[in-house]
Fold this protein.
Amino acid sequence: MLKIRYSFFGRMDGNFGVDEYIDELFPIVKGKMGPVFAPRANFTNRIVEMGEEDFPISQWIIGTRNEADGGIVSKPDQRIVLFNADCPLVAVLDQQTERFAALHAGFRCIIREIPKRSKAPRGPSIIHELFTRHKFSPNTSKAFVGFGIGPCCYGAAHWEEAKDLTFKFPVGRATRGSRCGQISFDLYTIIRSQLLEVGLREANISIYNRCTSCEMTDFPATLAYYSRCRDGPNKGRNAALFWFTK
Ligand SMILES: [Zn+2]
């Protein structure tokens, strides 16, 4: 049976991206696996297949020429790395076609902005894009979701959707951290509902819903999550490495 695998790295002392700290980040896996695919995430709904628009960054890291918040690979020795700082990440494995995707699922990747100058509707979520444009099959796919901030700490006062009473996703209040008392969204619930919407079976969705901001902080610094919400901007970054095995 095909399995989704992952490793998670947190760093508190550097706003690292793929071109910084990368050798330091993966001393164990470096040299022991095939190329690592590192999509250049920036809150889009674009997903790029490895090989489509490769931008070599080092001997073993392949970026993308254009911004993309998701990557697709199709061999077990190909890894995908995503960098985050509170946004949940989603890995999807289509067991029939043996295609594997990892998605950065920040709020604006899963809830697209309403275009301001036209009457066009919101664009599709990056999750919908995977199952429509990129043709992953909901019947044969399974998903892992994790490594993001919980509704306990997220807060949502910075989003216009928090003031929009017609916004259909459930809202609550943050109960911890610096945004305590603010309206808050549960990103994990939104992601889960979108995965169900495209047709994934509940049993094939696995959610690791620990919060980057209020959990995992008692670990040694190298294992702790960095949280933008908790620690402030540009002080750290997390990296998640995803792959699949047969
Ligand atoms: Zn929390």
